Every structure is written in C-alpha cells, then in structure tokens.
Amino acid sequence: MAASASSKAISEIPVSPQLTTLSGNTLHDDGFDAEAQEKEKDIFQAQARQPFIVRLWHRLRQQRSADDTLSEQDSDDGPEQYIRTIEDQPDGYPRLACFLSSDQNFGIYRGFSYLHSRLLLNIQDEVRAFEKKLDDLDEIDGYNARGVRSRLNSRVKDVEIASQEGPDSRQALLGRIKTKLLEYGSFSGSSDSD
C-alpha cells in the first residue's frame, strides 16, 4: 500500500518525461529546479498585476536593449547618444514625454481639427476681402492716353507708381495677400486629423 501511495504521489507531479527518470520509488529530475520555477511564477504574477502600458514599456525596453547591443557591435565609431530613461525623469509631463518618445507608435497627439477649421475659415475670409480690394483697384486703375491700362500690363510700371501711393498700393496689397496665403497654406495641410 505504501508503494501505491508513493506511485500516486509521483504521478501527480507535473514533470517533463524527457527530464525525469524513475528508479524504484525515487523520482530523479535532471534540470528541474522547483525554487527557480516558483520565483519565475512569482515574477510573472507580479508583472500581470502591473498596468498594461507598464508591461508594454518593459517589453519594449528589453527589446530595445537587445537591439542596442546588436547595433553597438555593428558600429563602434558612431557618435555617443544620450538616452533618457523613464525612471530618471520627474513625475508629470517630463516622465510622460519620455515615455511617449520611447517608441514611435506611442506618439499619438490630438490635431485640433476644429480649431484649424475655424482659423482656415477666418483666413479664407480675409483672403476673400483682399481679393475684392484687388479687383476694385484693378477697376479703378485708369487708362493711359492710348486707352490701355498700362499699369495692369506691366509689373515694373505698377511698382513705380506704387512707390508714390504708399500702403494703399496694389503692390502693398499683393504683399499682404501673399503673407495671408502662406499662412492659409500652413494651416490647410494640418487640419485633417483630430
């Protein structure tokens, strides 16, 4: 009966058949370390209790350190880089910024598309008003003695006359239109995402 109890106890132990040998009533294990396995189990359980983002960060950090080791072996003549670690950063925005910059996939930022649209509409209306002023100036521009609007046919002539007119000239207005259109272009490309 003692033999059946010991064989039952042996059969309940989960072990790999390749690493275990049985001689008599004694179970011999080649390479099984219960203490190491228990420690590994504790580490796994502790990691499972951490927030997902922390586990992801640790995994990326391990991967990055392995990649850095490989890249250091490949090229030793490159410039030395300063690497920020999250643990070394003070709490708040510095630590958050360090985390977000630790992987390119973490850099997800709000685009403020509503505000971009509002600014675009405002600039668009300003450009429209400038366009109306330019049309009015073109209509007001008088004909020369031959009945030709020489000022509209020659930029050089327009620049000469504009120097006498000051800030209300066509050239000054075209300068303001150029500035406003550049401003409009800088906003129009970034209003797609939110």
Notes on the structure:
The structure is a single chain. The chain is mainly α and 194 residues long. The chain is built from 8 helices and 2 strands; from the N terminus they run H-E-E-H-H-H-H-H-H-H. A two-stranded antiparallel ribbon has the order 1-2. A hairpin with a 2-residue loop joins strand 1 (20-23) and strand 2. The longest helix is centred in the middle third of the chain and has 28 residues, at 113-140. The protein is rod-shaped and about 110 Å long. The model is unreliable at 4-11 and 13-22 (pLDDT under 50).
Question: What keyword list fits this structure?
Answer:
194 residues, 4% strand, two-stranded antiparallel sheet, 8 helices, mainly alpha, rod-shaped
Query: Mind describing the biggest β-sheet?
Result: 2 strands, antiparallel
Strand content: under 5%
Helix content: 55-70%
| Terminus-to-terminus distance | 74 Å
Instruction: Give Rg in angstroms.
Output: 38 Å
Strand order of the largest sheet: 1-2
Category from helices, strands and their pairing:
mainly alpha
- Write down how many β-strands occur, each being a DSSP E stretch of 2 or more residues: 2
Count of alpha/pi helices: 8
The residue-averaged pLDDT reads 74
* Shape call: rod-shaped
Low-confidence stretches: 4-11, 13-22
Give, in order, the helices and strands: HEEHHHHHHH
Structure summarized in a few sentences:
With 194 residues, this protein is mainly alpha-helical.
